[in-house]
Amino acid sequence: MADHVSLSVPDESTCFDDDGRPKRSGTVWTASAHIITAVIGSGVLSLPWATAQLGWIAGPSVLLLFSAVTCYTCSFLSDCYRTGDQLTGRRNYTYMDVVRSNLGDVHVKICGVIQYVNLVGVAISYTIASSISMVAVKRSNCFHNNGHDHASCNISSTPYKIMFGVLEIVLSQILNFDQISWLSIVAALMSFTYKTIGLGLGVAKVVQTGKIQGSISTGNEIDKVWKSFQALGAIASAYSYSLILIEIQDTLIKSPSAEAKTMKKATRISLVVTTVLNMLCGCFGYAAFGDQSPENLLTGFGFDDPYWLLDIANVAAVIHQVGAYQVSCQTLFAFVEKKAAEWYPDSNIITTEIDIPIHRCKPFKLNFFRLIWRTIFVIATTFISVLMPSFNNIVDILEAFAFWPLTVYFPIKMYVVKKNIPKWSGRWICLQLLSGACLVISIAIAVGSFAGLVSDLKAYKPFK
Q1: Which pTM was predicted?
Q2: Which of 219, 297, 402, 449 could link 118 by a cystine bridge, Cβ 3.0 to 4.6 Å?
Q3: Do residues 276 and 56 lie in contact, with contact meaning Cβ atoms separated by under 8 Å?
Q4: Which of 209, 202, 210 is nearest to 282 (CA)?
């Protein structure tokens, strides 16, 4: 890993920040939109199923617990954005820069592997999820016109994964985070749209039946235990965004307060919003369907009508996943392009930017390396998604791989170093106990998710 490089200028201006880079324009609201776009994915629609695996007591309790842990540890991570003083210290542009500044190169390499493997997996999972939503629209209309037993309503998801991939090839040429704020805002609005529809349909079903489904606790069968572990992964993924937190924080303007203070506010706003939505979706979906809750509230056909409303919800889900793919992958794109420029500074293919005029808009900056590598990346993730059978299990495995190190271990360890918390002090012991408990949870998620994936692979036939 190359050493952290920072440009310094004597004074800030109206055009440049204290590190010599163009003036940042992000606010608490754009940061909140980025977080909501990354966090409130279609995985939230599996929360009724997750709640069903845990029961009425454990389900909502775990939802609240993961929210609290994420908020707590992400505040530690926000404090590490600058090395030294929160207003004048050196900036760390990525999660890996933060780890390097506080923990050294060995931890950086471990962090890099975990973070970027996870981002590749996230891209694959969004491709799978979007195709499921597109297939659901097609099947919903087919069922409405022909009935639920019609043979033509069995539809392959492969063409829809390819369609999503083609669109992402185009959008992946957007240069960086600052230029996708509009996409995050649109995606966040779409996310609210389909969550609201799913919630509304759950409430309507409870009102229609006049009773609340579900049980207080879960059973003891071994299959139920594996599914309970998977449920923990589904809930954890509903709050996971720490792997791109620093990149989001790096878009924020410094005034009127330090970036860490603004980021903490955005985190609180976003997690309050997501927790309320998660609780409502999870609880009302479980109340509507009980132990028979589908793995996806909108695509599992727990609801049949109104079919047009389901179509709107699933289209909104696709639009959200289009934006979420870009929010997540920009970090990986920037890392690869930065390293390529460091390794081959004299290569015209890597460093040359060509301005392509666009009528009434800023010129589009074409870079051949960016065009080629990002296109190859999208094609590769699309192909892998075709081979994978299940959205939920893929997401759960990713969460098992990343939740403990990126959301808990590294933030806590860096906070201990930054604040010089004495070893074996009361606070140090409490933080280590929290980290250890979350490690146990991650192991449980991994065991349950691999068991579920193996079961799905036995019946799955790619390209069909």
Answers
A1: 0.76
A2: 402
A3: no
A4: 202
